[in-house]
Amino acid sequence: MTGARLDSLYLVLLGSVAFLFLGMLAENVNAASMVDFRVLYYPARCLIQHCDPYNEGDLLNITHKEGGERPEDTAKVRQIVTRYIYLPTAFSFTVPFAMLPWGPAHLLWLAFTVGSFILASLLIWEIGADFVPTLSGVLVGFLLINSVVLVMICNAAGIVVSLCVVAVWCFLRKRYVPVGILCLAVSLAIKPQDVGLVWLYFLLAGGVYRKLALQTLVATVALSLPGVLWVWHVAPHWMQEWHSNILTFTAHGGLSDPSLASKGGHALGMMVNLQTVISVFWDDPRIYNPVSYLVCGAPLLVWAFVTLRSRSSPARAWLALAAIAALSMLPTYHRQQDTKLLLLTVPACVMLWAEGGLIGRFAFLVNITGLLLTGDLVWIILFGLSGWLHLPTAGMAEHLLTAAQVFATPTILLVMGIFYLWMYVRRTGPDNGRGSNQYISIST
Questions:
Q1: Cα(322)–Cα(345) distance, integer angstroms
Q2: What's the start-to-end Cα distance of the chain, in Å?
Q3: How many CB atoms lie within 10 A of CB 384?
Q4: What is the mean pLDDT of residues 41-64?
Q5: Is there a contact between 89 and 76 (Cβ–Cβ < 8 Å)?
Q6: Which of 189, 187, 190, 238 is nearest to 47 (CA)?
Q7: Torsion of CA 145, 181, 5, 349, to 10 degrees
Q8: Cβ(91)–Cβ(47) under 8 Å?
Q9: What is the pTM of this model?
Q10: pLDDT in tens, 285-320
């Protein structure tokens, strides 16, 4: 290992230590710690005891019986943990955790979240280090330090994104492919909205990638079917109840309402989909939803057409995945923790930087800005300062901070997506350039 590569590895390891330390610190001092694991744990406990996990009353009874209520829980937290919105496919993964008491279950989930995310980060660093080791270490380390909320609330996105990244590494490196298939299948079963378009890339790319995508689909069905059949047996009306729970969260002023009236969309763990921007001007789902689909649909169609018609290569694959990692956050409901999928943009950024020129510098600027604005630390600091200063104009400061969140994060995601899509479209012919050829020679 060269000196530069070793130094960059130290940056990633330093970021991993900071990620773990800051995350555990936040988890111990925050009243909402582990709240997103509670969202998964108690519905699975409910299902094990043959109760309806999508029924608020049944879930509330199980939570109370299991001692899952906390004195410090706010009305917002109580609503989050008593209205289950994941699909039944997730139970195949969460039920094994729910078979354990809360203590070991939440520690195991926490360890899995931290361990899988650090592993995924190291794999992405390893790809980028083939080009510019130092830059790869800086970007991955910076993303790790900015991911403390994953540890604090233990949202399933930490595991889903990590397993997806591991799968992508396995597929493009052509190593441990069965492990990659299993990882992507689990990701699709838990949160298909996060990684579905990554799976779609491999399906559209053709050749061996399409074969891997189809094998992943079969594995996903095989993993998910027991949970789905179990839920249908215990709760035959789960679809109506699930839909009712979704409507409760997305109603005007609800926790997942994208508008400024939302009670849970514009704080730490904020919503990042494009509806949050459009709703500022037209606070009507009949307007902001179609406009979001239209704005995001055009680049997604271009991306799909280019992927379907062009010859795939590892270099172009990273550009395609970078584009879709950013764009997939925008058309439908996504939160800040889901944006850790931007790990997939690091190899493309480093590859473009290695080629030099204005495009390489712009790629770095776009990426570092995206990682900053979708990360946790900047918002933790800003929210902390806003509460600590107690300014007479605190109301105005709060509105300005909300406006910064609402506009800045979706906008940078759109810029990242369009930029990498442009790079992807430009390289639909034979691979050219030092960076692309270097990658192909290393990876094959």
A1: 4
A2: 20
A3: 10
A4: 93
A5: no
A6: 238
A7: -70
A8: yes
A9: 0.91
A10: 999 999 999 999 999 999 999 999 888 888 899 999
Q: What is the pLDDT of residues 341-377, one digit of tens each?
A: 999 999 999 999 999 899 999 999 999 999 999 998 8
Quickly count: other Cβ atoms within 10 Å of residue 284's Cβ. Answer: 11
Give the tens place of pLDDT for each residue, 388-422.
444 444 444 555 666 777 888 999 999 999 999 99
pLDDT at 398: 55
Kindly list the distances between the CA atom of residue 198 and the CA atoms of 213, 227, 402, in Å, as whole numbers in the listed order: 10, 24, 30
List Cα–Cα distances, 133 to 129, 168, 174, 442, in angstroms. 4, 20, 22, 14
**Spatial distance between the Cα atoms of 363 and 344, rounded to a whole number of angstroms:** 14
Query: Taking each helix axis from N to C terminus, what angle separates 102-128 and 91-98, rounded to the nearest 10 degrees?
Result: 130
Q: How many CA atoms lie within 13 A of 143 on its CB side?
A: 30
Q: Locate 358 and state its tokens.
A: 């204005």
Q: For residue 85, how many other CB atoms are within 10 A of its CB?
A: 17
Q: Which domain holds residue 78?
A: 3-443
The interaxial angle of helices 102-128 and 133-145, nearest 10 deg, is 160
One-letter identity of residue 132? V
Inter-residue contact 160 to 194 (CB < 8 Å): yes
Number of domains composing the chain = 1
Comparing 121-135, 175-189, 423-437, the range with the smallest average pLDDT is 423-437
413/367 Cα distance (integer angstroms): 10
Distance CA 62, CA 67 (A): 8
Measured between alpha carbons, how far is 76 from 285 in angstroms, rounded to an integer?
22
Share of the chain above pLDDT 70, in %: 90
